[in-house]
Specification:
GO terms for molecular function: oxidoreductase activity, acting on paired donors, with oxidation of a pair of donors resulting in the reduction of molecular oxygen to two molecules of water. This is Fatty acid desaturase. By secondary structure, the chain is an all-alpha fold. It is 57% helix and 2% strand. The protein has one domain. The chain has 16 helices and 3 strands. The chain has a 3-stranded mixed β-sheet with strand order 1-2-3. A hairpin with a 5-residue loop joins strand 1 and strand 2. The longest helix has 27 residues. The two termini are 33 Å apart.
Length: 387
């Protein structure tokens, strides 16, 4: 049986039967990995936490020698690594519930808080629920453009987007703050679709969390360094900046390179689980690299696998990836991946290109894959999203 057929217009067409089979195979993969979780996974996350704490202690300590440039640079590097590990391989993944099976209070997704200005509960709503449930659906997934960018041809152009590269650069440099305000939906407030009273509770939470972070990084630790206050303050600012640029780059490479597909609400209404899986694979992209690179990315370099199984421990993504790639090959689905340089280049090229009106850039590309859906009356699977 031919897995995929090619239409006269080019896109590949996936039948309802094939979608069901994809869902079944991915469910089996998930069940197999879940059943195998155990001591090696526990040892892995404890080793990452130990490393993160070690880098933070080293970074804070080296700041006391910050009057010597090599020690200041080493302190910034250590503190940057600490913050990246905390936010990505630990915080992001813990708050997805990846380690809830351990029943370890310090790794409980419901109470964990991370070293960044965004309150954990607000991030879990905007990211775990909104983004992972409605991945790349226009009008539902607010990560498409983050409310300030034109990052997909499906977003209608207007002159505001001429500043696309400037907005993207500002978001990159201030990424933790952009993540913090994401759940406020500031663009909808400006358009009058949301009132300030709607976000009063969110603002209070942000004020408390951001206040603690600012006090820690920009007041307490600099004061503790005495006469080295200025160099310590500069070091903390630099470490947060490094973390912001790195996190932005990894996340944008996983979602916005050329070839990643977006969807309409009509196309995705009442999805089956198999259809949800297919959307995750078409709407995500991976980054190739070595083991250390994957750890430093929070294993979000395996963005496809993360979107398929967001609550499986991320250290398992490297072993899952070959099976997911083989599944894509079996059904003719694209498996978007490439080195960081190529992926980030593709993202920035898109940011610059989509700043211009469509008359100068051409029409939107046709979808690479079309999923043929059963009539609603014949659907037997409930819609389900793995968040």
């Amino acid at each position: 049986m031919a897995i995929l057929t090619e239409t006269g217009d080019g896109p590949l067409v996936l039948s309802p039967e094939q979608v069901r089979e994809i869902g079944r195979e991915l469910d089996e993969l998930r069940a197999r990995i879940t059943a195998d979780l155990g001591e090696r996974d526990r040892a892995y996350i404890y080793s990452i936490i130990k490393a993160q704490r070690g880098f933070e202690i080293a970074g804070r300590g080296l700041m006391y020698l910050g009057f010597l440039p090599p020690f200041w640079l080493a302190g910034v590097a250590a503190l940057s690594v600490s913050k990246i590990l905390d936010n990505m391989e630990i915080g992001h993944n813990v708050m997805h519930g990846q380690w809830d099976w351990m029943r370890e209070p310090g790794l409980n997704s419901r109470v964990f808080e991370w070293d960044t200005v965004c309150p954990a509960d607000q991030w879990k709503h905007s990211h775990n629920y909104v983004h992972h449930t409605f991945t790349n659906i226009h009008g539902r997934d607010r990560d498409i453009g983050y409310g300030i960018l034109r990052i997909d041809e499906g977003q209608r152009w207007n002159p505001y987007y001429l500043g696309n590269p400037v907005y993207a650069f500002a978001l990159m440099m201030l990424f933790e703050w952009g993540v913090m305000v994401h759940d406020l939906e500031v663009d909808n407030i400006i358009r009058g679709r949301r009132s300030w009273s709607d976000i009063k509770r969110l603002l209070k939470g942000q004020w408390r969390k951001a206040g603690r972070q600012v006090l820690k990084d920009y007041v307490a630790f600099p004061l503790l360094s005495g006469p080295l206050l200025v160099s310590t303050l500069a070091g903390n600012i630099a470490a947060n900046l490094v973390r912001n640029v790195w996190a932005y780059s990894i996340i944008f490479c996983g979602h916005f390179p050329s070839g990643v597909q977006t969807f309409t609400e009509e196309e995705t209404a009442e999805e089956t689980r198999g259809e949800w899986y297919v959307r995750q694979m078409l709407g995500s992209s991976n980054i190739t690299g070595g083991r250390l690179f994957h750890i430093m990315s929070g294993n979000l370099s395996h963005q496809i696998e993360h979107h398929l199984f967001p609550d499986l421990p991320a250290n398992r993504y490297p072993e899952i990836a070959p099976e997911v790639r083989a599944l894509c090959r079996k059904y003719g689905l694209p498996y978007s991946t490439g080195p960081l340089s190529r992926q980030i280049g593709s993202v920035w090229a898109k940011i610059f290109r989509l700043a211009l009106p469509p008359a100068l850039t051409g029409s939107a590309p046709a979808p690479g894959v079309i999923v043929m859906r059963e009539p609603r009356s014949e659907r037997s699977e409930p819609s389900e999203a793995g968040v």
